[in-house]
Amino acid sequence: MMFRRQYHCFVAGLADLAFDSSKGVLEMPDFREELKAILHPADYSKVSVLFLPSDNNNLMAFLKGSTGLPDPAGNFTLTDFEEQKRVLQSIIKEDDILLPYMVEFMTDWLNSENGIDKTEADRRLTEGYIYAGLNSGNRFLGKWIRFDTDLKNILTLVNAKMLGLDAVNLIVGDDNLAKRLREIYSSGKDFQIPVEPEYVPGLFRIAVESEFLEREKKSDIARWDFIDSETFFDYFTIDIILGYIIKLSIVLRWKLLDPETGKNMLSRLVKDMENPVISGSFAD
Fold first, then answer.
1. ∠ CA 194-179-230 to the nearest 5 degrees?
2. 53 lies in which domain range?
3. Could you read off the pLDDT of 58-83 as tens digits, one per residue?
């Protein structure tokens, strides 16, 4: 059995989290500083994977010409992005700063006259994050990213069908469920909901919830329950800490949500899905 480091005192001292209450919890930047000081570097590298979506957002902002990074949760700084661009444009071969999938994306962007359209950019960067998690060597991280991707793909399929949009290029990944969801989209209105993985039928029931904020809440409860089931026998390992980070992000997210915010989120979702192709940049 692979050795896994134990963080008894740290885990025992973590504040209890409740889905509907953010009382007494740390903000994420403060919590990450604690983690960086306490965790073994190999374990902290697993934590960093969870924040790659923020790096993806920041990379796109940088390539669009932003002089600042919009998402402070990322692992890489503006200096890192600038240095990677310099490395790519250097005649002399130097070590890359960013992860391989980011380097490849930046290279293609810089070599393209019009940049990369939004749908392809979203897909490539998201899949880079997914594969980084699946290949991280961490059991929980791989299962979590698979579950969360499946949930998002199912929501994408249902949204696309309601809006009359092409879901084929919006669904990410090439796993069996992603392929099946693309087939469902192409098959028309009548289809059979997949039964594997076992959680898929429940995720479809959530995806067809008509009230947006209620659907968001049920989605996050499903995420919360999945984490509990996957870490049930983990007590002081990095897996329980990774699950705690995700739960904390859910708690902090709902701290900011209200009906008006939910309405704005829905409007932005529809806008983004209806305008998937924007040469060289994202819609503001």
1. 60
2. 28-274
3. 999 999 999 899 999 999 999 999 99
